[in-house]
Design brief:
single chain; 1455 residues; 6-stranded mixed sheet; 45 helices; 23 strands; 9% strand; elongated
Length: 1455
């Protein structure tokens, strides 16, 4: 060959060594790239300075001090290698002095030596790695050219072989160097020599490059999980750059909208991931292009060349897998950090926004798109309630502007659990969004290179199908936006259902509320079915395109161009068309997902754009509260609540009083800067303020932790506070004293005890200013008097500014330094003369001589302080694999016949795919003119060279059958998804609605919300994809194995061995991943619970200025949640790397085996295609099984709701007129306990309350008064004896019927978002006139049916909420009415009017009243006195006014 080339060409013969033109180009190119690398090294600092902010490292670890550069083993090794390489290259220059080519190579080695000498790398030198990788690629390419040209002398050149060995040694050395500077402290970083523990950071903070690529660092955790179920203590901390405290500190410095801040914080990771993803995708299709060389060499009968191409393809596959793993890791890093940053931002907004989740504003943003009356039934008020709840309005109602309405608690949970995931998912997928279109471009180029311009017909069809799909995607986005709105309302209804579970059961409303939830669920499921149908249409169009692209191109190639189908054309083209179909589909899906992501982006931006609470500048700060002609409105509202206030609050006790709804609590909120200051002058102290809100806010911690809160523990002060708040006797009753842990919302304490613990927190604080909102309302007379004497008149109040709202002015007025009356939003400060005149009233005169000391209120010894425990996620999760029964329940819910039909249609679709491949094999065999062609043609078809149309018709028919079967399967899948989601959700709601009261008391609402909202979201769609893929992969595997056995039966043995290897990998992967996923779902509960805690106690938290403490608590919770997810995906990358490498090696071995056996190229193409399918199916089977084990954790958690304890339903249906006024209430030796493991609260009590009487229930704290109400409502079956109303035993009666017939009004009535008519009659049983009459009688003429109520009645005062509850009693007029402190927060005048109304409206009812204030029971004609669960007396009431001092204390008992 050399003799035919002229001298001076690029071919040189020097000492027997031939250098060809490609050699010269490669070495020259290497020199150019080396110079570029040197320039990058020299200018690296200038380049870094000029990079945009999004390309700079974010929250990166930096050393505390930078030491001078020093040499280590790796530095020395690289120096020796580069110097030896330089010496060898100089030797080549000397030997071949006339050839400048070797000078270029010497330049490259000189640059490597310079960079090594100046940089003296101690950690992985990325530029040197790039340079040596270029060296290796150049040398291997030259060797490949020599091999193809049979130039074996060039391959055996000792100098070049030596330099190649040095390059490999350099890469090995760099691969074993640490990525982190070894001079930095690594004592807190885990490693393989230390068992995994939460005390150490993740080992990935200190890895070598090879460890990073192969992910061997995560194996110790997997090894531990194979022996036992791991716990959270076994899991490392997150890596430095993933820890949320550090992310928070850096992220809060960024400016702009949330999305732009997320992009800036994660831009570098996205850029790296995208760059690597492009390399990976191009390598993937380039490898397919090389298969044409393989088939060509086989057709030419050159097995050595075929073997070379196999090795080249394996090399590229190895590099591709490394790049894929790295790209995936950086993309995942962007996802995790962006999700954590979004969590932080949303929670931070929760701390600063103006309105704490008013939920009456949950209007449907797509009402116009909803069909009118979708939920309505003619004549049904309940249906109209549903309609109004979802956003519908009556004709007479004015339209509400929702533009500035705030997100509800449920919506915030949805934002955290759903929308942030959607946004972060787009960060994860951004690399694919860029790389997939580039892959499409390269695929198109290679197709044109192989088939010529005939392949362009397929591209034209592709554009046509993409255009059609774009219209479907627009429809999909519209439907998704509607579904999100329905999902929000369903989540909101579920949230109320869980939060108000006890009141709903006590009033017998669970069934109607469950029906309401299911109606919302049906709307959501209709949208899901529509979305699934449109998605099925998109998938079918994509499959149609995938079949039409090659069919159209083959038709043009064979008919118009008159070409045959040689193996080096048909098989690479088919693979490229398959990749083109998959890439276009994935790119289309990704782009569609980005458009769909506009919905969560809009929702998050809307939430983040909500106005923040106004922060008063320090210039307005003063030592006292000063208001001059000041007016205030509620946040986001224009109507003034407080007008023209002129008042000053200084050191001492200021008492605020007024009628219900006059604005007393609003004044305290205004002083805390929680109201909008509209006009006038207002200044406030710039310091923490202790605030005791009207409804006591307690955390799920011990009593001591609730009192001490954020302050340091001071034993003496703590003892004084316990004494001042009269908590000594209460702590003595409790088994663990102040170490008693409270359930959510303070369950475990009575109403009076909750109020005093909340008061104790405010008193214990070091704050100079205390704002107390009616702290005495829930207390009996003597306990309240004791607190006034010990606290307000004691040393703990000295020098403090105390502003107290109260209706108990008879106790505090004499001690007040200032009294302010609030009258319709205006303030009147009583003069000294007015105050003295009022104090001369007999009511206040009597209170002055009240020195009664409550029994048991002695000073207790202080308990040992307990350290604050870390927030528990929820109850421990199950261990081991997910049982088969869980999957079967899901499949049964979806419909067995649908699953069987799905398998049949998927099987037929796969059969058609194999039949098409066999047809193309026969065609390729004929084109190659081999001797294996069957006489008479394949399937009896004529010779394809002469009759190509017939073959094309058959090919088109097979493709058409595949498309139809796939389309039917997709529609079946859509129906299965909706059936299963609807059925399982209905069962879960039904089980929760029937759960026992004890279950609701002891189960955190965050846990139930997590399962009914978050886990159910996985059931809605997440679990179906892996289950469907598992079935399809199993079918594909079986049919592919049958096809392979028909050609090369021995290959099945190889595939079985590979399958066993895959199973081995998955036996390592599944246990650890399942444990991590279970813990991940458990540790999502604290994040959701924190939202609820923040919503309820936000004002208290902001007043004390401890937002940072709760922010830290949230950051810790996010860390605990995210680390489970982080290591789960690290294990996924570990598995993917091993499966990918195993698949590449197996494919290479199979090809070499078939080449060695002399298998024809057409048969190799067919077997290789089916083997690829079979291996992918095995991998997918393992992967989907693992995914099922992981995603089914949510299914398992939802299924756990089927096993919660149910309360007995009762068999007896009472008569329509039961209970009648003449029905006596009888307790016969009845004992009552709240749980089997708790002591009895009522102990064999026997008494009778006459029918039609008004009975006052009196007794001390813990005496058992409220337990009487619980027994009458059958919240728990008596542990002994029985309770009857009339002749009916309550243990046998239907519980719902009982609670529908008995009206129970408690101190804090539960209100729902909607109108007043919806709240007073939630089930729609009464006419509008009856409701209107009850409203006007109790609340007054200014209220009407359509007065808006926020969730929980947040836009009402506590007294107004109690009036709504009393309105329910007046409306229902039940035969038995139980009032438990129903007027505690109502002023005396209003309370007297209410008592008169109750006497008139309930004259024919039996009324049982539990109260602290004597005026609430002064009309009673029957009296029951309890003490420690035993009846002291029961009989006609005699002068309760005199008895009040002795027996009136009636805090509710501890449960």
């Amino acid at each position: 060959m050399a003799s035919n080339l002229p001298y001076g060409s690029a071919l040189h013969q020097l000492g027997g060594l031939h250098l060809s033109k490609p050699d010269t180009a490669i070495i020259f190119g290497l020199a150019v790239f080396s110079v570029v690398t040197l320039l990058l090294y020299v200018t690296r600092h200038q380049i870094q300075k000029r990079l945009p902010a999004w390309l700079k490292p974010f929250a990166q670890e930096t050393p505390e001090s930078v030491k001078g550069r020093s040499w280590n083993f790796w530095t020395l090794s690289l120096t020796v290698i580069c110097l030896l390489g330089l010496l060898l290259s100089i030797t080549s220059v000397v030997i071949h002095s006339r050839n400048l080519l070797y000078v270029f190579e010497t330049v490259s080695w000189l640059i490597a030596a310079l960079i090594t000498t100046f940089d003296r790398p101690r950690k992985t030198p990325k530029l040197l790695l790039l340079l040596y990788a270029l060296f290796l690629a150049a040398y291997l390419t030259i060797y490949g050219i020599y091999f193809l040209g049979k130039n074996y002398d060039g391959i055996l050149d000792p100098l070049r072989l030596s330099r190649t060995a040095l390059v490999i040694l350099a890469i090995l050395a760099i691969g074993n160097m640490p990525l982190r500077d070894p001079a930095w402290d690594a004592s807190l970083i885990g490693n393989r020599h230390i068992p995994p523990s939460y005390e150490f950071r993740s080992p990935e903070d200190n890895l070598t490059l090879f460890q990073f690529w192969s992910l061997t660092w995560v194996y110790p955790l997997a090894k531990l999980a194979r022996g036992r179920e791991i716990t959270v203590e076994d899991v490392w901390q997150l890596p430095f750059e993933f820890q949320h405290t550090r992310l928070y500190m850096a992220f809060r410095e960024l400016e702009g909208q949330l999305l732009s801040r997320l992009a800036e914080a994660n831009g570098l990771d996205i850029f790296i991931a995208t760059t690597l993803a492009i390399v990976e995708k191009v390598s993937e299709v380039s490898n397919i292009r090389l298969t044409s060389k393989l088939y060509d060499s086989l057709d030419k009968g050159d097995p050595s060349e075929a073997a070379l191409w196999c090795v080249v393809m394996l090399t590229i596959d190895t590099m591709r897998q490394i790049v894929k793993t790295s790209s995936g890791w950086y993309a995942r890093k962007a996802y995790e950090r962006s999700r954590g940053e979004a969590f932080i931002a949303l929670f931070g907004k929760l701390l600063t926004r103006a309105v704490a989740g008013s939920e009456s504003a949950e209007k449907d943003p797509i009402t116009a798109d909803s069909p009118p009356g979708a939920l309505e039934e003619p004549g049904s008020r309940l249906s109209r309630f549903f309609s109004r709840f979802r956003g519908g309005k009556k004709a007479k109602a004015t339209k509400v502007d929702t533009s500035n309405q705030s997100a509800s608690n449920a919506k915030v949970i949805n934002l955290v659990r759903g929308d942030t995931y959607e946004i972060s998912q787009r960060f994860w997928e951004f690399s694919k969004v860029v790389s997939q279109p580039i892959k499409v471009i390269f695929t198109v180029y290679y197709l044109i290179d192989i088939m010529g311009w005939s392949s362009c017909l397929g591209f034209g069809l592709m554009l046509l199908f993409l255009t059609f799909n774009s219209f479907l995607v627009r429809l999909l986005i519209k439907l998704e936006r509607q579904r999100a709105a329905y999902s929000d309302r369903r989540a909101q209804a579920v949230s109320h259902f869980v939060e108000a579970s006890r009141p709903l059961k006590l009033n017998g409303w669970t069934s109607s509320w469950s029906s309401r939830i299911m109606k919302f669920r049906d709307l959501e499921m209709r949208k899901r079915l529509q979305i699934s149908t449109v998605s099925a249409a998109i998938s079918t169009v994509n499959v149609l395109g995938g079949a039409m692209y090659p069919l159209a191109s083959i038709s043009l190639y064979t008919l118009t161009l008159g070409q045959g189908l040689p193996n080096d054309v048909i098989w690479p083209s088919l693979q490229l068309f398959n990749h083109l179909e998959a890439s276009v589909k994935e790119a289309f899906d990704l782009i569609s997902a980005y458009f769909k992501a506009m919905v969560p982006v809009e929702r998050v931006n809307k939430y983040m754009a909500e106005p923040d609470r106004d922060e008063e500048p320090d210039a307005n700060a003063s030592s006292d509260f000063e208001l001059t002609s000041a007016s205030f409105s509620r946040p986001l509202m224009d109507q003034l609540v407080l007008r023209d206030l002129t008042v000053r609050f200084t050191t001492g006790l200021s008492v605020i009083r007024g009628k219900v709804g006059s604005g007393k609590s609003s004044l305290l909120l205004a002083m805390l800067n929680e109201m909008e200051h509209r006009s006038g002058h207002f200044s406030r102290p710039n310091e923490p303020i202790a605030y005791g809100q009207q409804l006591p806010w307690l955390q799920s911690k011990t009593i001591k932790e609730n009192i001490v809160f954020h302050e340091k523990f001071d034993a003496d002060r703590y003892q004084q506070v316990i004494h001042a708040c009269a908590l000594g006797s209460d702590l003595a009753i409790l088994y663990k004293g102040d170490q008693t842990k409270l359930e959510e919302g303070g369950i475990g304490l009575s109403g009076g005890q909750k109020a005093r613990v909340a008061l104790a927190r405010a008193v214990y604080s070091q704050c100079r200013i205390l704002l107390l909102d009616d702290p005495l309302a829930a207390l009996d007379h003597d306990t309240a008097s004791t607190i006034v004497r010990r606290f307000l008149c004691g040393p703990l109040a000295q020098g403090r500014t105390i502003v107290m709202v109260t209706h108990r002015d008879d106790l505090v007025l004499r001690h007040a330094d200032q009294v302010v009356d609030i009258i319709d939003g205006q303030a009147h400060v009583l003069s000294e003369e007015e105050l003295q005149e009022e104090l001369r009233h007999p009511l206040h005169s009597n209170s002055a001589h009240d020195n009664t000391q409550p029994q048991g209120a002695t000073l207790d010894e202080p308990a040992v302080v307990s350290t604050e425990a870390k927030q528990e996620p929820e109850e421990p999760s199950k261990t081991g694999s997910i049982p088969l029964s869980i999957y079967l329940k899901y499949m049964v819910a979806g419909g067995w016949y649908l699953w069987v039909s799905l398998a049949i249609f998927y099987g037929f679709s796969r059969f058609c795919d194999i039949a098409r491949a066999q047809l193309l094999e026969a065609w390729g065999n004929e084109s190659a003119n081999t001797s294996n062609i069957v006489l008479g043609g394949y399937w009896g078809l004529p010779n394809p060279s002469n009759h190509p149309k017939t073959w094309l018709y058959v090919l088109g028919g097979i493709s058409g059958a595949q498309i139809v079967s796939f389309a039917v399967a997709q529609l079946l899948l859509a129906q299965i998804s909706v059936n299963a989601a609807r059925g399982l959700f209905a069962i879960a709601i039904d089980k929760v609605s029937k759960a026992s009261f004890r279950y609701h008391d002891t189960t955190p609402t965050g846990q139930l919300k997590n399962r009914l909202i978050a886990d159910m979201g996985m059931v809605d769609g997440g679990i179906l994809a892996p289950l469907e893929s598992f079935i399809y992969s199993f079918i594909a595997l079986v049919l592919s194995l049958i096809a392979i056995m028909s050609h090369q039966p021995v290959l099945v043995i190889i595939l079985i061995l590979v399958a066993l290897l895959f199973v081995y990998f998955f036996r390592i992967y599944v246990p650890i991943s399942r444990s991590l996923r279970r813990m991940e779902m458990r540790y999502l509960t604290p994040i959701i619970a924190n939202i609820g805690v923040m919503q309820d106690g936000l004002v208290t938290i902001r007043a004390l200025r401890v937002e940072g403490r709760f922010q830290d608590k949230h950051l810790s919770a996010v860390d605990d949640f995210q680390k489970q997810d982080h290591f789960f995906w690290s294990m996924a990358f570990w598995l993917d790397f091993r499966l990918g490498m195993s698949s590449s090696i197996t494919r290479t071995f199979l090809i070499l085996f078939m080449v060695w056996h002399g298998t024809p190229a057409s048969a190799i193409g067919f077997v290789l295609t089916q083997t690829t399918v079979a291996m992918a199916a095995v991998q997918l089977l393992c992967d989907r099984f693992a995914a099922l084990q992981l995603d089914a954790v949510s299914l398992e958690r939802v299924d756990a709701l089927n096993h919660i304890p149910e309360e007995p339903s009762g068999d007896i249906e009472p008569p329509e007129d039961w209970p009648r006024p003449c029905d006596n209430v009888r307790f016969e030796t009845m004992s009552f306990k709240y749980a089997d493991n708790l002591p009895s609260v009522l102990k064999e009590v026997t008494f009778e309350i006459p029918g039609g009487s008004t009975c006052a229930v009196l007794g001390r704290t813990g005496s058992g008064k409220s337990t009487i109400a619980n027994a009458l409502l059958a919240t728990q079956a008596p542990s002994g004896g029985r309770v009857t109303i009339g002749s009916i035993d309550l243990s046998q009666i239907n519980r719902t019927s009982l609670r529908n017939r008995v009206t129970f009004i408690q101190q804090d009535p539960t209100l729902f978002p909607g109108t007043l008519r919806d709240n007073i009659d939630p089930e729609g049983k009464f006419t509008d006139d009856e409701c209107n009459n009850a409203i006007h009688r109790v609340l007054g003429d200014e209220w009407n049916l359509y007065s808006q109520i926020d969730a929980g009645g947040k836009n009402l005062s506590q007294g107004q909420r109690q009036l709504v509850g009393i309105g329910r009693a007046v409306l229902r007029r039940s035969g038995l009415v139980i009032l438990d402190e129903a007027t505690a927060s109502i002023d005396r005048g209003t309370a007297a009017r209410v008592q008169r109304i109750l006497r008139e409206e309930l004259s024919k009812s039996t009324v049982i009243t539990i109260a602290h204030r004597l005026e609430a029971v002064e009309d009673a004609n029957w009296c029951l006195r309890l003490d420690h669960g035993i009846v002291q007396s029961c009989g006609p009431a005699k002068d309760l006014t005199l008895a009040g001092g002795e027996h009136g204390e009636s805090g509710e008992e501890s449960q």
